[in-house]
């Protein structure tokens, strides 16, 4: 039973006397059916993601639509293309902010980036960095600001290219526009905010000089054969959504494109798994920073 409106049901009628669905109410069969609908209509598979995470986010959309069970929600998905898009966004979107976990960026500045530049400046070789699962571009642009602010001379001798990828088209459009609400900049020092952003109404626009440092593209993280060689990969708070076998597949793909001495940065709640651990040494255990052997 669906009581929502075509734009997602946030203003739906109250269902007196009924308890709205929780993630624990979504069985494996229902999850499989929702997955099939997404694959058929959006060419998007959730099979590689953790069931618990997917069920939790699906339950949020079901409550927004005021659906009492998974069967009702499947009917909504078959009839409402807008809800399909909203569900896909709910399953893929990752909220970020500039200089998230400032201590990690401090480690990049002091112990990670200097050796990378030292190894390439003499050869005048381009360094390529990659923000994997970039969301709205905050992480990639933060890296650009860090490089511009503290490694300006190094960049002149050894050019830098920052890649940033995500699976969601809409979030990539947001990233390219580089306009943000104040809450995305709460960890930025005031001088950085003043030097690298300008006000456009209630939003803040990133300077073109930093925008030009980053190249955004759509990419499925499971397509490891499409990964490009890089000297450093930031893959933070992305692996936690995937099953362990697929985490290992992704990490192997990253290890394959990193040269000896290349750097991998994970989120604080993530770690290396399986035999992939043999491919890296630890630079900073607290910040989950690793070096390719």
The CATH class of the largest domain is identified as Alpha Beta
Class from secondary-structure proportions: alpha/beta
State the major sheet: 7 strands, mixed
How confident overall, as mean pLDDT?
A: 89
CATH topology tier name of the largest domain: Rossmann fold
Radius of gyration: 21 Å
Q: Can you tell me the residue ranges where pLDDT is under 50 for at least 5 consecutive residues?
A: 1-17
* The CATH homologous superfamily of the largest domain: Vaccinia Virus protein VP39
Number of helices: 11
SSE string, helix = H, strand = E? HHHHHEHHEHEHEEHEEHEEE
- Please state the overall shape, judged from the principal axes of the Cα atoms: globular
Helix content: 40-55%
Beta fraction: 15-25%
| Strands side by side in the biggest sheet | 6-2-1-7-8-10-9
How many domains would you count in the coordinates?
2
How many β-strands, per DSSP? 10
Which architecture name of the largest domain does CATH use? 3-Layer(aba) Sandwich
What is the rounded distance between the termini?
Answer: 56 Å
Short description:
Helix content is 42%, strand content 15%. It has helices at residues 28-42, 51-64, 70-79, 81-92, 102-121, 138-150, 152-157, 169-177, 190-196, 208-211, 244-257, and strands at 127-132, 160-166, 179-180, 197-200, 203-206, 214-218, 232-235, 263-266, 280-284, 289-292.
Q: What is the element layout, followed by pairings?
A:
Blueprint: H1 28-42, H2 51-64, H3 70-79, H4 81-92, H5 102-121, E1 127-132, H6 138-150, H7 152-157, E2 160-166, H8 169-177, E3 179-180, H9 190-196, E4 197-200, E5 203-206, H10 208-211, E6 214-218, E7 232-235, H11 244-257, E8 263-266, E9 280-284, E10 289-292
Parallel strand pairs: 1-2, 1-7, 2-6, 7-8
Antiparallel strand pairs: 3-5, 4-5, 8-10, 9-10
Helix pairs in contact: 1-3, 2-4, 3-4
């Amino acid at each position: 039973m669906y009581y929502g409106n075509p734009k997602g049901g946030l203003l739906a009628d109250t269902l007196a006397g009924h308890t709205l669905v929780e993630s624990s109410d979504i069985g494996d069969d229902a999850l499989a059916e929702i997955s099939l609908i997404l694959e058929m209509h959006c060419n998007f598979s959730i099979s590689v993601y953790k069931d618990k995470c997917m069920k939790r986010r699906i339950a949020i959309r079901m409550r927004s639509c005021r659906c009492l069970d998974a069967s009702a929600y499947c009917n909504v998905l078959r009839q409402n293309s807008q809800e399909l898009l909203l569900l896909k966004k709910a399953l893929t979107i990752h909220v970020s902010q500039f200089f998230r976990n400032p201590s990690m960026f401090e480690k990049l500045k002091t112990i990670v980036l200097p050796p990378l530049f030292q190894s390439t400046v003499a050869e005048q070789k381009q360094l390529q960095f990659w923000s994997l699962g970039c969301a709205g571009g905050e992480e990639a642009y933060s890296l650009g600001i860090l490089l511009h602010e503290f490694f300006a001379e190094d960049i002149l001798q050894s050019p830098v290219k920052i890649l940033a990828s995500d699976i969601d088209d809409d979030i990539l459009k947001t990233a390219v526009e580089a306009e943000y609400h104040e809450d995305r900049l709460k960890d930025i020092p005031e001088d950085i905010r003043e030097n690298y952003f300008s006000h456009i109404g209630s939003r803040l626009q990133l300077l073109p000089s930093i925008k030009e440092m980053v190249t955004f593209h759509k990419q499925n993280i499971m397509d490891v054969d499409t990964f490009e060689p890089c000297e450093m990969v930031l893959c933070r708070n992305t692996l936690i959504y995937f099953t362990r076998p697929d985490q290992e597949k992704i990490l192997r793909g990253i290890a394959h494109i990193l040269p000896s001495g290349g750097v991998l940065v994970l989120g604080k709640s993530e770690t290396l798994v399986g035999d992939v651990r043999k491919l890296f040494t630890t630079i900073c255990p607290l910040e989950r920073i690793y070096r390719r052997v």
